Amino acid sequence: MSEIGVKVQGLGKKYHVGLAKSGDFRENFRRKWKHLLGDYVPAEDFWALRDVSFELEEGKAVGIIGKNGAGKSTLLKILSKITEPTEGRVEIIGRVSSLLEVGTGFHPELTGRENIYLNGTILGMSRNEVRSKFDEIVDFSGIEDFLDTPVKRYSSGMSVRLAFSVAAHLEPEVMIIDEVLAVGDADFQKKCIGKMGEVTSSGRTIIFVSHNMGAVQSLCDSGILLADGKIQEMGSVQDCVNKYFENNFLHSNEVPLLERKDREGNGQVKVKNVEVYVNGKKNNAIKTGAEVTFRFGLHHESGFRFKNLKFHVGFNGGFNERLSWCSTDLMDENYSFEQGVDFVDLTIKKFPMNQGRYSLTLYLKTNGAISDWIKEAFLFDVEAGDFYNMARVVDPRQAKVLFDYQMKLGKAED
User: Fold this and answer.
1) Full-model pTM
2) How far is CA 357 from CA 152, 225, 276, 296, 396, in A?
3) Which of 97, 259, 378, 411 has the most beta carbons within 10 angstroms of its beta carbon?
4) DSSP assignment of 383-404, as one string?
5) What is the pLDDT of residues 283-333, one digit of tens each?
């Protein structure tokens, strides 16, 4: 059984919002003067965190997610001992390395080389220990040409490269990483994700905060979802991400689609509802690999003549990022009808999306004009299924969309 590396009990952090007494004479004088003028606003208590408790096993990676203002940064600052909690306690076994913002732990006047040794000393490592890792740190960071340049002359990307490399290679027992990795380029981010995987496999603990749900899912074993300073969901990373997406979708299926006001178009034809058929039967339980039909009911005046009907369906993940789309523009047919049309069916023979929560964006054009355009028109969940008929499912952290493919071995002819 793994040992507990991080233990948090009843953690809370309270701030005073408004004008409060400080140790600065000019600020206190200004506060007193505003009070005499009747403009004084008394300080109010604001709990950035309240009653937060969890345990992390050694060698695990946990993703902490939540909207801006949820309390993520406050929690990391407490874990990093940058600020003290108002209540509760934190127990961490071993050394902690924190990467919370660009240049964390660096002295701007010192060179990159000197800062590597400085960080090692802060972590309690001897000079010989740092020297044994020095070449790996420099090689991973890719800043060898600027190693003897003061850090204050580094770009934000260079600072992040060096800071992460130091944090990952000097072998702390616990690594705490904030959204700072977003500063780096895509190739470096990929290197970082790979390195963090090595860190956890070596028995060290990672606490990772990011708005990049793909990175969180690929790296982390478990998740913690914060909302308004409290834990809203804790457990598998997939459950936390699904809940996070659910919270961030602007709409739900509870509002009748025809009553939605957040749409564009002339309204001559509107999508009024969405029905789902799985393997020929009406059923909202979509499963990866099943035959799925989305039936889009249409609302229009009686006898409306459809000419050059164009219908687009966008499949979106969290934050409305487009994953794929289906469109009549890709079909070599002229969709024109003299009589009314009641619905449009979209059938996908082998549904390729893996376990997760998704939404549909709908775009309808008739007679050369936009009739209806509505984002997040329909939310749906997908259950993991045996897409490849191999008696197993593909981990959604590895792939959100699956391909129906073949692989063959070949040998060049002599």
Assistant:
1) 0.63
2) 44, 16, 15, 19, 11
3) 97
4) E---TTSSSS---TTT-SB---
5) 888 999 999 999 999 998 877 777 788 899 999 886 667 899 999 888 766
